[in-house]
Specification:
The chain is built from 17 helices and 23 strands. The chain is an alpha+beta fold. The chain has three domains: 247 residues, GroEL-like equatorial domain (GROEL, domain 1), CATH 1.10.560.10; 84 residues, GROEL, domain 2, CATH 3.30.260.10; 149 residues, GroEL, CATH 3.50.7. The strands form eight sheets. Strands 11, 12, 13, 14, 15, 16 and 17 form a seven-stranded mixed sheet that branches. Strand 20 and strand 21 form a beta hairpin.
């Protein structure tokens, strides 16, 4: 970028900076948005397909979760990165509906492209999109239903909708109950409102056996065994010490040498080491603890002394699990074993080692608002997808409990938005009306994609949906398994209202932001590819 002054060029931007202006910048962002939406579009719905992602290290991920797919692929284009951010925001705020949000954002950019070709100014399009978004959120609220936080039957339907379509849905009948029971166990009423903290639900994976063996543990599961066979396998009325530092002789921070010249010095050195390790064990025993969870290693002599006094010990406990245990057991994590007192101990009814798998179960915790979901599967790929499904399920059930509202799925809400926002556009008039109509048309992409991914003619199904909604059937949606337009409320296809609102809001705001960009200045790194426009 340079300007002429007295015949001499004035350099404004640094060398290697690429600049795209006007229609070129707009077209670039629109293409990037459509490409990102296209990458996840075929995964939408119960009959969506999966993606296989192979990283540079050879790690394989098989999933149809939109946020996971977009987080795994390397996106270079700045407009594309903003689309990825839509999925990440949806995942952080709600936990599900990531694909829906990205597909809607892509459709909004596609409609903006058509409006720009008609000569409508980006500011007018942005204004129409913002008015359309406000109307869409208002309509979505009016389409919601109330749910009681204790209504297990309805909450199971919400969880079932989130899991349906994933590769592990063969066990969704069991997972639905586990998920809902876990969330209902940790939800509590504060100042008249229900609150569910996702940190109170621990998810653990164990390879082996089948997915049907997954279970809900009302307490903590550590994927560790006791450190010594001489220790008891089961401890009742457990008093648990939580220690963050090694219970062993650690190396010095600086290089040091110890010069030993006689046998007596060797004996004295060994004796002092044993005494130091014995003191570590004695400090635990003196506190009254009969269970030890240590974040670092436990030396063999310490294990021997602890076993001798009937203490159950686990070493190398991950920091996250130790903090979870502290919350569940209402104990304090100490950095020095010698500082341990009875007040620091956590309490539980039973601590025991499982007979079949390498785990330690801690049940009957002092804080009953903590539970663990133990997932089983025959392969790591299956376990990873199982975990993603359970995380999505728990998050949407938490959303439904906290807000006390839900809407129906199957493209019913989007069809209603499509028709009502078009009617609203007629009351606005002017060029903004065209922008609002384009905004409404973008919602066609959800029922259209559901039909395409299920092998049906999208035009036929879209016409059938519009006819049903024109007759006042607000909850009519597409049954992707039969191809019929039926009542989604009766079918039990339910989603949290928060998920639908967030997907509309994040998709709309991102589209509005991208539409208003007419100048892109990108500074390239100094490499052979410098000067080229970054792509996907």
């Amino acid at each position: 970028m340079s300007q002429q002054l007295g015949g001499q060029p004035i350099i404004i931007l640094s060398q290697g900076t690429t600049r795209n202006r006007g229609q070129e910048a707009q077209h670039s962002n629109i293409m990037a948005a459509k490409a990102i939406a296209g990458a996840v579009r075929t995964t939408l719905g119960p009959r969506g397909m999966d993606k296989m992602l192979v990283g540079s290290t050879g790690d394989i991920v098989i999933t149809n979760d939109g946020a996971t797919i977009l987080s795994e692929i390397s996106v270079q284009h700045p407009g594309g990165k903003m689309m990825v951010e839509v999925a990440m925001t949806q995942d952080d705020e709600v936990g599900d509906g990531t694909t829906t949000a990205v597909v809607i954002a892509g459709a909004l950019m596609e409609q903006a492209e058509k409006l720009l070709e008609l000569g409508i100014h980006p500011t007018v399009i942005s204004q129409g999109y913002r008015l359309g978004m406000e109307k869409a959120l208002e309509i979505t609220n009016s389409l919601s239903f109330k749910v009681d936080p204790t209504d297990r039957k309805t909450l199971i339907k919400v969880a079932d909708t989130a899991i349906t379509g994933k590769s592990i849905e063969s066990v969704k009948g069991k997972l639905d109950g586990i998920i809902v029971d876990a969330v209902m166990a940790i939800a509590e009423k504060i100042d008249g409102k229900y609150v569910a903290d996702e940190d109170d639900v621990m998810i653990k994976k164990q390879k082996g056996k089948s997915m049907d063996d997954s279970e809900l543990v009302r307490g903590i599961v550590l994927d560790k065994k006791r450190v010594s066979e001489g220790m008891p396998k089961k401890v009742t009325k457990a008093r648990v010490a939580l220690i963050a530092t090694p219970m062993e002789i650690t190396k010095t921070q600086v290089k040091a040498k110890i010069k030993i010249t006689t046998a007596d010095q060797i004996s004295a050195f060994s004796g002092q080491e044993r005494d130091t390790l014995k003191k570590l064990a004695d400090s635990v025993i003196k506190s009254g603890a009969n269970v030890v969870l240590c974040q670092k290693g436990i030396a063999d002599p310490v294990q021997f002394y602890l076993a001798k006094h009937g203490v159950y010990a686990v070493e190398d406990v991950p920091e996250k699990d130790l903090k979870y245990a502290a919350r569940a057991l209402t104990g304090n994590i100490v950095t020095k074993p010698e500082d341990l007192t009875a007040k620091d101990l956590g309490h539980a009814e039973v601590v025991e080692e499982d007979n079949d798998i390498d785990i330690t179960r801690i049940s009957g915790c002092k804080n009953p608002k903590t539970v663990s979901i133990l997932l089983r599967g025959t392969s790591d790929y299956l376990l990873d997808e199982l975990e993603r499904a359970v995380v999505d399920g728990t998050r949407v059930v938490m959303d439904a409990i906290e807000d006390g509202t839900y809407v129906v799925g199957g493209g019913a809400v989007e069809t209603e938005l499509l028709m009502k926002i078009r009617n609203y556009a007629e009351t606005v008039g002017g060029r903004v009306q065209l922008a609002i109509e384009g905004y409404a048309t973008a919602f066609e992409t959800i029922p259209r994609t559901l039909a395409e991914n299920s092998g049906y003619n999208p035009i036929d199904k879209l016409v059938a949906l519009k006819n049903s909604h024109a007759k006042g059937e607000k909850t009519a949606g597409l049954n992707v398994f039969t191809g019929e337009v039926i009542d989604m409320l009766d079918e039990g296809v339910l989603e949290p209202l928060r998920s639908k609102r967030q997907s509309i809001q994040s998709a709309s705001e991102t589209a509005i932001m991208l539409i208003r960009i007419d100048d892109m200045m990108i500074t390239q790194s100094k490499n052979p590819a410098a000067g080229q426009m970054p792509g996907m």
